[in-house]
Every structure is written in C-alpha cells, then in structure tokens.
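We read letters as residues; the fold follows as tokens. A sample entry reads:
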Amino acid sequence: MRQRTCAILALLLLLQFLLCANLSGKRPFMDEGSYLSSAWLFSKGETPYTGFILEKPLGIVFTFSALFSAFPASILSARLAMAAVAMLQLLAIFFIAKKFFDSEPAALAAGFLFAMWSIPFSSYLTSNEPFMALLSSIALFFMHECLVKKRSYPALIGFGLPLGLSILFKQTMVVYSAFFAIAFFALCWRWKKQLPSKKETALLFFLIAAPAAIMCAYLLLINSFNEFVATMLFLSSLVESGSFLVIDARSLIAVAAFAFMPVALIGLLAKTRFTEKKEKELLLLLLWFSVGFVNMFPFRGCCFHLLPSLPAASLIGGFIAAKAMQKKHGKKLLLFSVVAILSAAAAAIGSQMVFSSEAYGFENLATVCKFIEQNSGANERILVMPAVPETYFLSKRMPAASQMQFFDQYGEQFQQKMIGRIIQNKPVLVVYFSKEKNLQYTGPHLIDAFIRENFEETKKIELHPPLYKFFNYAIVLKPK
C-alpha cells in the first residue's frame, strides 16, 4: 500500500477507537447486562443454562469469561474489547474492498462509512452482533477466494470455520451459514460449471458444524444439554407473550444507512459500465447484505441487530463513492455519494452527542450496586426484578434465580421452577427497579406474589436521570 493510504487507514482506525472508547462508560443495555453477568458467572464456576439462563449459545460467554481472566471484570474492559472488534472489522472491510475492487479509494471510503455508522448501530455495546459481522466478513473474503480462483483447502477452512464459529454467538447464524453454504455450491456451478469434490464438501460441512457440535458435547458433559435445548426454544416453551413481534423505532436508522443500496443493485442488474466487470463481487456483497436481515428475528430490539449487514453495505457504499469520483459516471452519482457520506457523518456525530449525555450512563446504577455491596456478603445472593441484569455484574453478587430478566409473561411451570431456585438460594436482598415511587410489581405474577409474601421494603433509591429512561427508583426489599 502507498504511504498515504496507510496513513489514512491508521487515522480511520484511530477514529474508530475514539468513537467507541468515548462511550466506554455509557449506554446501559439489558441484553448487554445478561451477557456480561453470564460471562462473569461462568468465570466464577457457575454452570451455563442451569446456574444461569442465556437465550443464546455460549460464544459470547466463552469470549468474555476469557477476557475477565486476564483483565478486570468491568464495563470498561468489555467496551474496550468491543472497540478492538470494531477496529478489526474496519480492517477486514478495507482488505475485502482492496481484494474485490482493487481500489484504495473504495477501500478507504468503505472503512469511513463503517466507522461512521458503527456508533448509530451500537457496535460499541457488548453484544453478539459485532462478532457475527466480523466472522462473516472473514468467511466472505475466503468464499470469494474459492469462487474466483482455484479452490484450496486453506481457503475452504477460511470460509467454513468462521461460519461455524459465528453459530456460537447466535442461533440465527444457523440459517445464515446454511444460506452461504447453498449459495457457495450454486455459484460454483454457475461460475465454474463444477461442484466441489466430495472431500471438499465434507470438509466444508465439518468446519461449519464442528464448533456447535463441540459446544453441545461440552454441555452434555456438564449435564446442561437439556436446559440448553429448552432455552433455544425459549419463545415457544417459556414465554406466553407475543410482544417479541416489535420493531424498535431506531431500526429506521437503517433506511438512511442503506439508502445507496438500490443504486448498486440497479448497476448490477443492468450490467452497465458502472460495474466494470465487478458483477460477481457485487452479487456476493448483495447476498451478504440481504441474508444479514435474518438476524432481525424475532424483530425485537434495536438496529444493532442489523450490524451483520453493515459491513456489506459499507463496502457497496465505498465502491459507489469511488466510482462517483470518476467524471464518466456523472454528477448525479457524485451528489448522491456526497449526501450518503455526509448523512453517515451526521449520524455518527448525533449519536455521540446523544449517547454521551447524562441520560445514557451507569452512574445511578453504580449507586445502587454500592448499596448492595455494603449490605450483603460476597458469597450471598440477590434477586433483581424485573430487568436490569447488569446489576449482578456491577455489584459482583450472584443471582438467586437462573433467569436474570423477567420482562415478559412466563409460563406457570417455569415460574414455579424459579421460585424453587429462589427458596434454595435464599437471597438477602431483592431489588425492584420501578417507574413509580410506590412499588409496582411488574414481574411474572407468581414470582411477584412470592416476593410480596416473603420480603418487605426497606429502602428507596431515587434514580436521576431515570435508568433506561424508564426506571425512576430502585426499591430494596429484605426477607421478613
């Protein structure tokens, strides 16, 4: 690479790090609390799915329990680790663009777009999606290698193994990986008129399946496999609510982020000079972009669920921006690209301003956790209701129930099981996060009734600004 390109890439990586690091103590997030608390519990010897319930496979637990064995178990450590993941993702985008388009301007533009959009899409949070995006980036890089050059076993490993590892982070990646395996065979036939050999096919499917198989073998070994299966069927077996069919308003950010996609699609289908024999590369990117939307299921949460599609969108945007700089493609395309880049920068600046505000902080929760630490022993357990699971992680107190969030309607059999765990673990404190000053019991009805009968209120801690912009009080109860 030229010296100037290296300097710009270094500045982009620094920008990516600063954007993430600036939010290292901000933006509490319930799912993030479950991941961090689960990883911390695992590092302390708790058994997955029996000692703590996680609605995902164990990839993020393995990753962050390893991190906490080397660094302090803190929000800062986790967020800095996510900043490193974002920087690796930017590097992957740069090298994919270089390989696909042989264009340093396209690679730099793609990296810039990703850096700008990564914050509005919440890539700095401790969650599964950034890992899924990075692993699928590596897989796509080697998939392209297998399709446009002579297949080799190292390239097949580079394609299959990252897809297999991605399944450890979220069960939707089973669909994602199956889609890419099918697409790989279809494109081998379409572009090369030759399917992979039996040995190559066996290797590919082994690589995709092996990580999940090893995880399942581990769960069988520790007698947690049945609980794991029940958890993976969580929506149908434990919850009696259809409220998961909700699309968060922030997902509309994706409409602006992906506004340039139709331009690339038209250029691809029309096979105009705009694509300049890059139809295969754009087709792979469009497939990657499209299948990323499977991660939106079950349509609950924020636009961070679309992070697996963001690298593909950034690459296509970088390609368009580079082409727009060439006069032969017209002023309209240049204007469109300028608007796309400016809107990405505006989104990044706006998101930084919002997420850096006092409303998106852990300061209130730190006060609550300090009270918990002062009024309980290190080996005693607590119960947090209904849904601020990072309380366990920040207070370094283990949960009395294996379920760490109670924000839906749960089946009575499951509630009775949790009550049995609570009785067995004897929590010394119950902390209810409430909107009202007078405690409003908002958990599952049987668990609420059990707490009313066996615990009494001792303290109210006012939260200002409201935690999650919703909880105004932390109400502490002790055994009667």
User: Anything to note?
Assistant: The chain has two domains: 31-355, 363-479. The longest strand covers residues 455-467. Residues 236-247 have pLDDT under 50 and may be disordered.
